[in-house]
Amino acid sequence: MPRPAEDTRLPTMADVAQLAGVSHQTVSRVLSGHPNVREVTRAGVQKAIDELGYRRNSTARALATRRTRTLGVVAADTTLFGPASTVAGLAESARAEGYMVSTVSGRALSRLGLTEALQHLGEWGVEGAVVITPQREAAAALFELRHPFPVVTVEGGHDLELPSVSVDQNLGARLVTDHLLGCGHRTVWHVAGPQDWLEAAARLAGWRAALKAAGAEVPPPLIGDWSPLSGYRAGQELAGRVGRRGAGGSDLTAVFAANDQMALGIMRAFREAGVRIPVDVAIAGFDDIPEAEFFAPPLTTVRQDFAAVGRASIRLLLDRIEGGDRTVVPHHVIEPQLIVRGSTTTPVV
User: Fold this and answer.
1) N or C: which end of the chain has fewer CB within 10 A?
2) 169 vs 174: CA distance, rounded Å
3) Are 107 and 134 in contact (CB under 8 A)?
4) What does the pLDDT look like over 252-265, one tens digit per residue?
5) b or e along 25-58 (b: 16 or more beta carbons within 10 Å of the residue's beta carbon)?
6) What are phi and psi of 311, to 5 degrees?
7) Cα angle vertex 81, ends 79, 83, to 5°?
8) CA distances (Å), 6 to each of 49, 52, 142, in order?
């Protein structure tokens, strides 16, 4: 005899009610956490749910409650460690609060790109969005746009009247520069990130401020684009300065790269030129990518707490969604941490 066709129909609330021997309304009360349900009944309904593998229809729930339990994230260039780690921290924090995340990403966030991203998220029914705006243009564009739902920025909103969460990039640069000066270096050279990035500009400003506060020479910064290749090219230029006295009688004995990938490129250029790390030149980076402790030598760097950024951003967004105080524009700043490893040392005098 032919086998009966398997029932591939998804279980419904009525199926749960029939198996548990209760009404449809009782199942609904259990699912919504209603207090006026006896524990024995609640346990029976939950047992039926588990046995059938029942899952609530999110679309129907959204229509009934006007809540989708979905948040949006807009990000630029998630091929880079910082934006990618921020997106991961946001998604994890949203899940912990019972929300799903819809993400829109692109190479850059222009006014048009932001407009389209917010429109798409609105069509998907998100209740609010976190927008990662590391570039000046993106932050300014977001400030000028009308938002169809509550919006929180990461990195780009502290200078604007937008709720924001950011890491203190200036402090991180000062920490690493002070560390190198404390090792006995007379000054610290800097390979900066692209200056249309707010983080790069803040790290450059922190490096310069630390040198000036110590009365140290401020060498001209070299500008990279976050990539190991740009760091390698900067390293080739810097290697030619090692052992040569510059203005103020200071030679090149310490370098601070604005991210770990550029530091990696600098380290390769130095090895090829016979410059020993850290014997001849100490090197430090920024971000503490997972590979940093496995560089040769392990890289001194600045760690950003992306999980804390995610938690603060999601909590701030949910507060705005729930109708929190709109008369105050909150700006949460998270402190970074200096991680000292074998790539920095006291120079030989």
Assistant:
1) N
2) 9
3) no
4) 999 999 999 999 99
5) ebbbbbbeeeeebeeebbebbeebbeebebeeee
6) -60, -45
7) 75
8) 20, 15, 52
